[in-house]
Amino acid sequence: MSSSPVPSHRVVEAVQALRVLREQNDTKTRHSLLKDNEDFIFLVVTFKQLPERKSWKPCALPLPHPIYVAGESEVCFIVKDPQRQIKDYIADHHISGISKVIGVSKLRKKYSTFALKRQFVQAYDLFLADDRVVPMLAKTLGKECFRKKKVPIPIRMNKDIGRDVQRALNRTYLFCVEGPCSSARIGKMSFDNDAIIENVLSCVGTLFESSPGGWENIQSLLLKTVDSLALPIFQSYTKHESVLKETICSK
User: Fold this and answer.
1) Cα 116 to Cα 35, 37, 145, 204, 224, distances in angstroms
2) What's the CATH number for 8-65+170-235?
3) I need a labelling partner for 215 at 20 to 30 A (CA). Which of 72, 103, 121, 148 fits?
4) At 196, is the pLDDT very low, low, confident or very high (cuts 50, 70, 90)?
């Protein structure tokens, strides 16, 4: 990033303010709201115009301090049958960070109803998927997966599976399909302030370089927790009239 239009002091001030707001919130209220969000901090992005074609392929934002950690986060890897082949490969190559491997046929059989699909989606923090089965997962996982922004991240099934899995765990994901406003998890309140700030600036840098429509297409950037006010760190006052033709895509 050559010259980010977001001054670092604005990010510092916003993170410090989130700490204050956190302390002011009632503990019981916060507990009830955080069941699915675990004290996550969100970067909220508002675009001036949207891509013409909607896509559930996310914009990947690398994080210096990952929010998905092996041994702490629940990560499910959905694979092409037979699942045993992939399970053995992961074990033999000591690929860490994956809590469960499940084949498509078992997934369809075991989680066939809406209630079971919702239970399955809620049980994991992140879904990865063999890129060969991704097209069939929308129907298999159901709407809950998309509503919770837990769309499986494609993994190429080659000799670098371990590298690609680790890369996926070291990123956060921004989806832009339902209106101009979207959000990505960029840290946790359990992180120290420096780690949160570094994550925010890293995400801003990626957006600065590769945001759909260019940086000029970003209306605003805000930081918030699940139960806090959204605190602005960037606001554009110019118009962007060009029509976007590309969709958000992973880098």
Assistant:
1) 18, 20, 12, 37, 31
2) 3.30.190.20
3) 148
4) very high
